[in-house]
Amino acid sequence: MTSTGKPATGVTLRLLDKADREIVKLDRAIVGAVYKFQHEFRKNPEAGGFDLKPLKGHERLWSARVNREYRALLLRLGGNDWLLVSVKHRGHVHRNLDRLAYGINQVTGAIEYVDLQVVEEDVLRREAPARPSESSSAPEPAPRPAAVETLFGQYSAERLADLGVAEPLIPIVLKLTTDDELLGLAEYAPRHTGEVLLRLRDGVPYEQVMEEVTEPVAVEGAEKADPEDWQAAVDRSQAVVITDDESLQSILEEGDFGRWKVFLHPTQEKLVHRSYSGPARVGGGPGTGKTIVALHRVKYLVDQLPPGHSKPVLLTTFNKNLAADLRTRLISLGGPETLARVDIMHVDQLATRVVSESAPGNNKRRIDDTQALREWRQLLVEAGESRWDAEFLSDEWNQVILGQAVASRADYFRVRRAGRGRSVSRADRAEIWQLAERFTQRLEVKGLETHRQVAERAAQLEIARKAKIEERRRQQEQRGGLDNIHVESGSGAWLRYRYRHIVVDEAQDLGAAHWKMLRAMVPQDANDIFLVGDTHQRIYDNQVTLGSLGVNIRGRSARLTLSYRTTREILRAAIGVLEGTDYDDLDGGTEDLAGYRSVLHGFRPSLRGAESWDEELDLVVEQVQAWHDIPRESVAICVPTNEKVDDVVSRLGRRGIMSTKITSEGPRRDEGVHVGTMYRFKGLEYRRMIIAGVSEGLVPRSSVDAWSQTDRARYKRELQRARSLLFVAATRARDALTISWNGEPSRFLRPLGVRSTLR
Ligand SMILES: Nc1ncnc2c1ncn2[C@@H]1O[C@H](COP(=O)(O)OP(=O)(O)OP(=O)(O)O)[C@@H](O)[C@H]1O
């Protein structure tokens, strides 16, 4: 991420991606000296103490004194614009000057720096690993070529360079023979080189790597990057301007956890800073940084605003928990100045606010879909009604009656029920409508209201408000334009759009009413709505076609494909869970996870079956105990039901392991292993995860199969939702994943090689 803003001294000091990783490995005292160095250097690089001079044979690479022993290596981009690429012991700086390579990558146009000596010494001398054991938790054994065969021997240097592999590294790349060497190289190599090589090594064809990895970050147009234009190149590089004493410190001290704030991937960067002529959507698999992009987008939009005290930007998401997390991360990214211009609220909270504004004093209790279903069941029992089942009616009420704002019996006779699976006759409609009326009366009498009802009412209120604003605007235009100020007739209250920009996270789970409400809250204009989400992670029954709701994303849709969270091994298992199902793109089309990948490497997920739940609980405890090397809070256990959450908590307690339940408000306490049902894991991440209870009957729930007889469309949707739940859970893990079951394993585990216990 770059900025061209120059400080008062006219000196710009930037830090190149990966230099930070090298610096943090140094002794604490030296890191302290680097902090002092950057402070003084930004004031005056010419100060005598730095002994600033170009290195012999390099006109652009300079060395400056950090302390008696250490030297900073800096690329001079032009004038007083400096890029810190390395900090080295003085004894090593001059030893292999010809092995310090830097330049502008001809394909990506980004600045790259590599110390070939270090790479060669560290990478090519790595011992080949011992043959991995057969245990299921051993590192993934990649199919290995015969000992003397090189990994990339089939590609010419030129073909590798065309993919954007750093040219000075190509001779080393061509010598690699083991995966261990490759992983070592990826650690030192410029980011893009690592991505390309790992993808090729995955067996992905050359042309596909070109299309999925290189083309999205290649310099635009047919032109190659100008090898002498370093100022243009730094804007395409992963480099950050060190603005004050704290900025470098926070990058170094937060380590990997803070990198998202400073080093965006070029594909992420483009999406953040683009101007869109209307609503835009960013998709992509779990962990590809969609939330990160949404947060940077919010900051970018705020930075473009004229000064003021209002909050013209709305950042919204699906639930309270996630909204709280977005708030914390936005403060961390943009500080209080950014936060001051942004409303952060989850969609139901927003809807509630709209409805309460119009009817203050409404103190009905809000219930969710599960509680509403319970009310339906009771209604049917009390009415002695057996022709219709509660699930069907609840669905019909949510998706058709509320979803399409059907206001009268006559409307219900006319409404289209496309995609609803089971067809209903005119006589059926009459019966359903009558039951729906009884249901709404029941809620009314009990002082209850579903979130969906509130959302629908909020949508109608906002649509009416928008109509008024537009009407007023038309009147003013006819009168010759009155400064674009809108005054509500008679009241004197300002009437204007609530927001200028809306950014939505977890977009796949918002319902039609939410979208209608949001659409009416911003004027139709450039950069009005920016939404991020992944339909593979949809866990609520809210499939929408955005275009039909006035949110037209056609031509403004992009996808991220590189996972920053999960290892390649976990990712492969998680994708297996989704095998054979189709997913939509939120707009009536389809979407897949093509190109979804990771450069992180770790253990293969462990898959373990038990005879009984009791025995499985012992496996869970055993696994948690084995993970004693990391804080308990970095471990989470996910199970299919609330009863199982209680079982796990109590078993862990009996074995002296502290745990905490994840509620709808987030984890109850700070300490202990986090335990929750699958729904609670949306948007979260942990270093290690256990998913337990992945048995037939629970994943998917046995009730899902009942739909296969009565409503095929619903059956398909429910099955997909259950798969997505498991997919979401599996992709929360950063470096280790254990999946267990008892009795018959879930059918979703079959693509992972888990066999049925039934004959
Ligand atoms: N450019 C980046 N540099 C470093 N880390 C990153 C970057 N982008 C994302 N990450 C990290 O990757 C992880 C996943 O990011 P994020 O939560 O934004 O992904 P997501 O696509 O929203 O995931 P999900 O769909 O699973 O909710 C986070 O830990 C985040 O900090």
Automatic annotation (TrEMBL):
Alphabetized InterPro entries for the sequence: DNA_helicase_UvrD-like_C, DNA_helicase_UvrD/REP, P-loop_NTPase, RelE/ParE_toxin_dom_sf, UvrD-like_ATP-bd
EC number in record: 5.6.2.4
A Pfam cross-reference name: UvrD_C
Keyword field contains Transferase: no
Keywords assigned: ATP-binding, Helicase, Hydrolase, Isomerase, Nucleotide-binding
Gene3D superfamilies: P-loop containing nucleotide triphosphate hydrolases, RelE-like
Residue stretches making up the UvrD-like helicase ATP-binding domain: 263-567
Binding-site positions, ATP: G284, G285, P286, G287, T288, G289, K290, T291
Entry-linked SUPFAM superfamilies: P-loop containing nucleoside triphosphate hydrolases, RelE-like
Reaction(s) catalysed (UniProt annotation): Couples ATP hydrolysis with the unwinding of duplex DNA by translocating in the 3'-5' direction; ATP + H2O = ADP + phosphate + H(+)
PANTHER family (alphabetical): DNA 3'-5' HELICASE, UVRD / RECB / PCRA DNA HELICASE FAMILY MEMBER
Name of the molecule in the record: DNA 3'-5' helicase
Source organism of this protein record: Streptomyces litchfieldiae
